[in-house]
Every structure is written in C-alpha cells, then in structure tokens.
Design goal:
This protein has helices at 12-58, 82-89, 111-114, 119-124, 157-167, 208-218, 252-257, 264-267, 297-313, 323-326, 351-359, 377-416; strands spanning 2-6, 95-96, 99-101, 106-108, 127-137, 146-154, 174-175, 180-184, 187-192, 195-200, 241-249, 274-281, 286-293, 334-338, 341-347, 431-435. By secondary structure, the chain is α+β, with helices and mostly antiparallel strands. The longest helix has 47 residues, at 12-58.
C-alpha cells in the first residue's frame, strides 16, 4: 500500500519542513552569488602578500654610511685625516663570499692617482674618492689567487654610470650584477648607486658573478636622487637599440674617450651639455644616434645651427670630419632639435631609415631606466600594483559574465517550461513517499 502525505500549514512539523527547505534554497542562492567574489579575493591576496614581503628588502635598504659625510672633527694639533679614510673604507667590506682583504685598504682622493691616464674624464664625472683593495681566498696569495678591486665613488649616479660606460667597451657581454655590469675575460665592471667597481679576477669561474653580487649588496648606496640615472637616457628610442653600446659624457675628455661622433668643441660642454650615444641595428645598416641635452631650448637652437653648418660643409681641411663621420653614409647624416635636445644620426643606414630614427627622438621630462637594464625596484612595484588592479577587474568581469550566463540560462529554461523566470515566489512542500 502506497500513501502520499502533504504537509499542512497548520501542522507545526510541516511548517518547520517548509522553513528548512526555504533556508536551503537561500543558501544555494548565496553560494552562487558570493562564490565568484571569494575567488577574486583569493586571487588578489597572493600577489599582495608577495609585494609586502619584497618591498622592505628591495626598496627601503638603509645605507651603511652617507657618502661625503665626515665624522665630527676633534681638536688636535694636526689636520684630522681619519674621517676621510673612514668614509673611503666604507666602500669595500673586509670580506665577502670567501674573499678576505689581504692588506690595508688604500684610500685615494686624487683622480690622477686612481687612473693617471683618464684623470680628466674622472674629474668630469664628479670623482670624489676611491679605494684599492686586494682580496685572497684562504690566504692563497702565493698561488696567485688574488682578486684586485678598485671602487670609485662619484658625486651621484650620473657620474658612476658615465664612468661605467667610459671604461666599458661596446660589445662586452652583459652581466647581472648591481645596476649594470659587463665583463671582458677576467675583468668585470659594475656600478651601483654612485659607485663604480672594477674587478680583476685571477681566473673567472661559474661563481664569480654570484660573488660580485654579494659584494654589490655590501656597498653603501646613498639615499635620495643621488641614485637616479641620467634623465637623458630616457630619450633614447628603445626600438633596435643595442643597450651595451650606450655611452654617457659630461665633458670633452669623457666624450672623446668613449668614441664620440662629433668634435668635442662642437658639442658645447662649456654651456652645460650632456651627451648620450648609442648604436642601433637597422635593416639597411648600423646607425649611431647622438643626443645632446642643454639647460635651455635657446642654447639648443644655437648648437643645432652650428652642428648643421658643420655637417653641411662636409669633410674639409678647415673643418675635418671625425673618424666616425668619415665612415658614415653622407646621405644619412642629419641633425634635429626637440626642446632642449639636439639629436644627430650617423653610421651606414639608408637615408629613409636614418630619418625615421632621428624623428623618433622627442623630449619628455621624465626619468627612465638605464637602456639595456631592468627597471628600478619602484617601477617594478608600480607594475605589480597595476597587475593586481588589472587582475581584480578581469576577475570581476568574469564573475559578472558567469552570473549573467548561469542566472540568465536558468531564467530562460524556466520561461521555456511556462514557469515564472524567478523562483522567489515558488512554494516548496516536503512530500513523503511511504511504502508499505
């Protein structure tokens, strides 16, 4: 015998069953509504926690000692020279990565002693002091295991980067050390903050780069804008740029020593000019782009006219071309001004490509990362925040589309069956099938 019993509204048991059914229905609706939102919050929580863990170590690293700050002088009968030596000693640690200082450090304050052949260029870059140190591994001095390091400090990061490009030859392989690095056999150059480090290994090994990265972490870096790269580098077009060929100069000695294209006296360093040079790999041939930055657009107008007249006159006995200009395609030579910038293109491309390259130079008052190097920590943090915001927007749109798809599909299904689109007013009853 089969009996079907339907709950009555006057029956307390039936009322509780109806309430329980409606509660389960509401819970199902809440899960459909809040589940996509919870997914979005979980997706955002992971990158945000990673950023919080990285920010203190990558951005806010306190310097060990502010460059150029002297300790309080004591009243003595002789001039106090120890504070200067102490400031220079902070350039290099006593030991790193298994290398120990072999002898007392040799602080230097004269660029002619640091590098007699290039003292004028170092002075232009703002040389302040240097430190020479020999390091040995486990005391193996007699076996030739001596690492010679010269650390040179400049007034700001522009000087350190300029000196780095002065010593680094075009085409040296790039290394991931400090802010920028390059190597040539056993010699490794890198710069970080306002310090340039020139290291000579007895023999380069697979761990040499890791050892120098540990050294770079121990070098004091100044705070503030002294660590900002030269803004002129941001005006170099990035397309087809060979980042390992960039050179930055603040004076005639540094410009000529790094292979400048124009005669140094024509650049106008006496008017406060800065010069950035880089090579570009174009389809029709290699090109060299020179960008000169002046304090005012008025000075740039006068220098543009002088450079244009020099290029138009050609290679003459009165105004001979430099070697890079003599080896250039005459139809590719062109000069153009944009604000306080004057750009000159040379090399061996066809005229059309040379013109497109120089037309891509536009003056913008922004600070950009060093060409060929990764962005700064602050820029990476900004990119991470932008990525988080983009992810949240994408997840929100995806959740909205999913809700519309599922909710709209269910409504259409109910409508096709002749029922109301919404099930809010549906009455649910609990039915018991009893079998005898």
């Amino acid at each position: 015998m089969r009996e079907t019993q339907t709950g009555s509204l006057s029956d307390p048991t039936a009322i509780r069953r109806i309430a329980a059914g409606r509660y389960r229905l509401k819970m199902r609706r809440m899960r459909r509504t809040w589940f996509p939102i919870l997914l979005s919050l979980v997706a955002v929580a992971g990158p945000a926690s990673t950023l919080a863990a990285q920010m203190p170590t990558s951005i806010a690293r306190p310097p060990q000692q502010a460059p150029g700050v002297k300790a309080p002088a004591k009243v003595t009968s002789k001039p106090a020279e120890k504070p200067v030596a102490k400031a220079a000693a902070a350039l290099l640690p006593a030991s790193f990565a298994g290398w120990d200082a072999a002898s007392g450090a040799k602080p230097i304050t004269d660029p002619a002693v640091a590098d007699p052949a290039n003292a004028a260029a170092l002075k232009e870059y703002g040389f302040t002091d240097a430190l020479l140190e020999d390091y040995t591994r486990d005391g193996e001095t007699l076996k030739g295991e001596t690492l010679r390091i010269k650390a040179m400090r400049f007034s700001d990061a522009s000087g350190a980067y300029g000196a780095y490009t002065f010593y680094r030859q075009s085409g040296w392989p790039r290394e991931e050390i400090g802010t920028g690095a390059a190597s040539d056999r056993n010699r490794v150059l890198f710069w970080i903050g306002n310090v340039l480090v020139d290291s000579q290994f007895p023999q380069v090994s697979a761990m040499s780069a890791a050892e120098l990265r540990e050294l770079a972490a121990a070098i004091p870096v100044p705070a503030g804008n002294k660590t900002v790269a030269p803004p002129i580098l941001g005006n170099l077009p990035q397309k087809n740029l060979d980042g390992q060929t960039t050179h930055y100069a603040l004076g005639p000695a540094g410009y000529a020593g790094s292979g400048g294209v124009l005669p140094p006296e024509l650049v106008g360093f006496d008017h406060g000019a800065e010069a950035a040079t880089a090579n570009y790999k174009l389809q029709s041939g290699p090109a060299t782009l020179t960008i000169l930055s002046y304090p005012t657009p008025q000075i740039a107008v006068a220098q543009e006219a002088a450079i244009a007249a020099y290029l138009k006159a050609g290679n003459t006995a009165q105004h001979p071309f430099t070697k890079p200009l003599q080896e250039s395609n005459p139809t590719a030579l062109e000069v153009r001004r944009s604000g306080p910038l004057v750009a000159v293109v040379s090399g061996d491309p066809i005229q059309e490509e040379a013109h497109r390259l120089i037309e891509s130079v536009h003056w913008e008052a922004v600070t950009s990362p060093v060409p060929g190097q990764r962005g700064t920590n602050i820029q990476q943090a900004v990119k991470l925040f932008v990525g988080i915001i983009t992810l949240v927007v994408i997840m929100f749109v995806a959740a909205l589309m999913l809700a519309l798809f599922l909710g709209g599909g269910r409504a259409l299904y109910r409508f096709a069956r002749g029922k109301p689109m919404s099930s809010v007013y549906d009455e649910e009853f609990t039915r018991l099938d009893l079998n005898e």
